[in-house]
């Protein structure tokens, strides 16, 4: 059964979010004072509204009080949000992903009872996952096709002390750090086991550093956290296997990050297509010139092929059996989509900006923002040079002993 | 074939390199980071550079300038651009119009305008063509619409011309003291036959500078609005014949200096940016380690460095050839092609540099700046109109030779 139909629910939520973005988000996000990369405060009120629409809990199961959306639906929603404001899309995607991972899959019933009601009740309750550490080598690079992989343990440690865990260390590039009320923190125990511990924002010894934005090459609300003898109850530690499960679930998330990128490209494309049908040079609307027509066609082609790859990767993660029964090839579809989509969207935003002439580089116009935002996507996660090498390892059937930091897909 | 530089060319290059390293580069990032586009400019660097001759180096010796050749100018632009692309452009913008003055102004005009330009370290030049409704139409006027192109109107009133209208994106608008302004003097004629060029001093009554554009790259470089409200310009300031401001026609004599310098200018500037990016990437590859080994050991890194360098060296060859051809008064489509090529090269090279830094976990502010500066080339040097223009010139040259 081969079908590319979206479900009525998927089409409905796309319309709802598209409408919300067109009428609420875009007018606020595209105000001329807000188009500079370094002057872009989060649209907190709109995040609240998005939360009321159920987007904060989009992927949380219906049993737990969410919408239970699968990965493809999350991609559809994320693209729509990012077409209005990528920062908003990044914040919500992180929270809805972690809501599903933590509440539906990883928390013991006791923990879930402790955290879930507060999470559901508070529109501004966001979640964060703290993994990256300053100076920690997570690159593939020289380890390509070699088994001598870098030490995967974290510098952040968790030691047991009576009924508590004592967590010490610092984390960087933590998406949602300034907003999060609960952090899932990757740590290494004295037995050199990698695990994940839950740290509430008010835990003593936790300090959040809000990024000043200038060096922040990430969408959303990134920041750092420092844990100094931070004490949390013993049951806040997720089980040993669950850390790996968390990494796996965050890998499923990859298509959603790509959908965010795609939303940026679409915003640029729509702006250029509109403009090309209005602007007259050379005695015609510029879309009637071959040069601009072919360029916009390239933009549309790149975005549509990227969307196809992203949706296929998302759908594959929703339907593991499709690989098992041979419907889909056993390939690293998400990584393949990432390399293609991130490069295609960046080029698409540049081409779209070119249609605007000099206005394409002005900071009070949105086009330079789209180019900048797509460049952030190109460089904010694993570099494509590494992603290509991981694809190479996969198609060669190369296996290395699973290391959580590398098992993200 | 002889690629050796003369002692004089070498001396200019070394002076520029030292100035770029010691004076330009140290202020480059701090100027780029300033949010208000009116505040990014810095008179100190202009005065220092002017004292070394970088503002006036294109003025012929017989008029009191340095009289450098195009090869020297290309070398200096590239060296200054290694320090900061936008600061280099601010200097070379003055050369562009020095060439024009030398080529087309009367001796009386030269006396009136070159002397103060040479004396005053803060005397900058600019030229106004673009208008809100006229960008590509000025470069490739459509034959089917004679009204297409710039709209700024100039009407003769006795010994004066009265200008009304608006220019945008004008280089040095907020800092320049003298501008070449293209205005429509015959609204019923096509652009090329109905436009006249005027010398317009900054203090012309009725001329007002509007906003300074807030660009994502080339932040030091000032592009602004010029608003003309009954601005009065003496007839003595008309450049060339009335209705004869066709920058692309060669009837007026050798125009190599005026418009074709602009093509060389962007390509030579791009070369400097590419050299900077190559040096940054090499330094990173030799110093940054993964595990215990420097990045340079990785094949993927070597292949990127290879691409960056081969493009940069190809651009260098092309730029120097075009400069040499200018010096030998050889006309061809090469300057335009070289400028188009420089767009592709500067963008790929600076993006590879950023990619290498980002992949190494280094979000380098300068690597990002170079990419933002490079994007400017799309709209000046490498958009489809600029490419088609070079192609049409190619066809014209081929016809001429038949």
Care to describe what's here?
The complex is a heterodimer of chains A (409) and B (402). Chain A has helices spanning 8-29, 44-52, 71-84, 86-106, 109-121, 240-252, 254-276, 290-318, 321-324, 333-354, 366-380, 384-395, and strands at 126-130, 157-161, 164-175, 180-188, 194-200, 206-210, 222-233, 280-281, 284-285. Chain A folds into 3 domains: 8-124, Butyryl-Coa Dehydrogenase, subunit A, domain 1, CATH 1.10.540.10; 141-240, Beta Barrel (Butyryl-CoA Dehydrogenase, subunit A, domain 2); 246-406, Butyryl-CoA Dehydrogenase, subunit A, domain 3 (Up-down Bundle), CATH 1.20.140. Chain A is globular. Chain A has 409 residues and is an alpha+beta fold. Chain B has 402 residues and is α+β, with helices and mostly antiparallel strands. Chain B has 3 domains: 7-119, Acyl-CoA dehydrogenase/oxidase, N-terminal domain (Butyryl-Coa Dehydrogenase, subunit A, domain 1); 125-239, Butyryl-CoA Dehydrogenase, subunit A, domain 2, CATH 2.40.110.10; 256-401, Butyryl-CoA Dehydrogenase, subunit A, domain 3, CATH 1.20.140.10. Chain B is 51% helix and 15% strand. Chain B has 11 helices and 10 strands. Chain B has helices at residues 7-32, 43-51, 70-83, 85-104, 107-119, 136-139, 256-287, 299-327, 334-359, 365-380, 384-401; strands at residues 125-128, 153-157, 160-171, 178-184, 195-201, 207-212, 223-234, 238-239, 289-290, 293-294.
